[in-house]
Amino acid sequence: MRIALDAMGGDHAPEAVAEGAFQAAREWPDTEIVLLGPEGTMNPLLKERVLPNFTLQGVSEWIEAGEEPVKAVRRKKNSSIVVGCRMVRECQTDAFISAGNTGALMAAGLFGTGRLKGIDRPALSPVFPTMTGKGMLVLDVGANPEARPEHLEQYALMGSIVAEKVLGYENPRVGLLNIGTEEGKGTALTKEAFGLIEGLPVHFVGNVEARDALYGVCDVLVCDGFSGNILLKNTEGVAKAIFDRLKQELTRTPFHKLAAAVLKSGLKRFAAEIDYKEHGGAPLLGLKGPVIKAHGSSDARAVYNAVRQARLFVEQGVISQISEQLKRVERG
What does the DSSP assignment read for 181-243? Predict the structure, then answer.
């Protein structure tokens, strides 16, 4: 197996990407890890990181976080993101991972890797932690803000396959994000999507309210990219606010500090459960090959877990299974 990484993508690149990729190469010697980055920048970082399955492929450009995605992809043909997506299409690598510009990765995935037949718009699909300790796959969280009902139908089908094959859930429950659980609730988009998803060969549990989502009422949550991105950002913000407030309260007095010492192991366990670094990245589902968006703030641990996720994605043949299921639905 061969997995390529964008060495220049993310807030902590290239150091965190190099370290996380090296840890992954050391953990899985059967997987060749290829870093895509400028040789002048990367070579000093890789001097003491030497393994036979850990290599650098030089590129002369990279796309910054603030650049306009489509223009950057068209202008920077030798950037790490564009080269990585092209390598997937040309079967030079089995998967590509980037923590860089999300819009650019989406554009490069569409132009460079291409869409699966039967998929109109790819979906960005991270795993959300839940109160049950079992992750929930959410799609879409920003790749396609203006979705149509058939897009949500496709997300439900793809999400069910990934939840089963990558997350290991038996007969995963698929829910539709809405403002109420009743069938007739919501906008024209969600009402029509409800009927379409009902007709799919998935375990559809109906509408799900945002307040219930993190309590494990479904394994796959389907939504348009606009609503999904708000849900993602709000969830991250609330989690951070709660931990910041807890930290203030638990260090306020000597007695509180003593209580914090007693609760320390439980708080650490809870923090690990909701930490994005432990969940790897968010696949761009619907492309012809595995392209994974890692969190923009990824550290070495998050990069390592993104490689772990990509390996599982490839080993389970998720792309071919999505394609086959789409053909069955079309024939049916």
Answer: SSTT-S-HHHHHHHHHHHTSSSEEEEEEEHHHHTTTS-SEEE--HHHHHHHHHHHHHHHHHHH
Rg (the chain; Cα; Å): 20
The domains located in the chain, with CATH, are 2-119+286-331 (3.40.718.10), 124-273 (3.40.718.10)
Distance CA(82)–CA(220), nearest Å, equals 30
Give the phi and the psi of residue 38 in degrees, each rounded to 5: -70, 130
- For residue 125 the two structure tokens come to 């699909």
Q: Give Cα separations from 188 to 15, 193, 223 (angstroms).
A: 47, 8, 13
CA angle 99, 105, 106 (to 5 degrees): 130
pLDDT in tens, the chain (332 residues): 999 999 999 999 899 999 999 999 999 999 999 999 999 999 998 988 989 999 999 999 999 988 999 999 999 999 999 999 999 999 999 999 999 998 899 999 999 999 998 888 899 998 888 888 788 999 989 888 889 999 999 999 999 988 988 788 999 999 999 999 998 889 999 999 999 999 999 999 999 999 999 898 999 999 999 999 999 888 878 877 877 887 787 787 877 777 677 766 766 666 666 555 556 688 999 999 999 999 888 899 999 999 998 998 899 888 888 888 777 776 55
Outline where 252-299 has alpha helix (H): 254-273
Kind of pairing, strands 95-98 and 220-222?
unpaired
Tokens 């007693």 belong to: 262
User: What is residue 116's DSSP assignment?
Assistant: P
